[in-house]
Write a structure and sequence with these properties.
With 181 residues, the chain is mainly beta. It contains 2 helices and 12 strands, in the order αββββββαββββββ.
Length: 181
Amino acid sequence: MAFENPEELEISLVGQTLTSIKFYNVNDSYFVFNQKNLAVIDGGIELVFGEGILAIAWNAEKELFDVNTSSVKPLLGALDYYQIDSAELPFQRDILGSKVTAVTAKWNWYNNLDDELEPVGEKQYILIEVVFSFENGHHFQVATISYEIENKSIHKARFDSQGELLLSLDRIVEIENISKS
C-alpha cells in the first residue's frame, strides 16, 4: 500500500483536478453494463491528478487489488495485460478536467501471520471502495467486488479485494460487506 494511513488518500486528492484516466484488463473480456456509466474490469485503473497518480490494480504478487502512487505496472507485474481503448468506456469524459471536492474511501485490512498463525507487523490496509465527488456534480465510484449477473445487471455485489473492479459514474452501486462466518 502506498499510504501510511487510510485518511492520507482522502486528504491528498481533495482539490486536485483529474487530468487522465487509463483502464487496464488482464482477461480477454470485461463487462460494460451501461456504456454511459457502469463497467467491471479486472486489471486496474490509473487516475492522474495533475502531478499525482492513484493506481488501483491487481497485485500479481499478493493476489488482490492494491494501490500504488506511480503506475499500475508495478502491481500487475509480469501479467499479460492491456490498456482498454478509452472509446470503450466513454463515461470518463464527464469527469476529466474536473476538480475533486470530496473523497470517501472504505478500507479493509489484514495482518501477515507467522508459522504459529500469530499476527506479525503492522496492519496492511486494502482499499475496497473510493467515491470521488467532482465540482461539476458528478460522482465516480471505484470498488473491488464480486457479484452476480441477472438480466444483464449487477446483483448481489459484495466487497471483495480478490474480485473485480467496479467503475460507476453517477450511480453509486450498493455493495454488501462480505459476511464472515
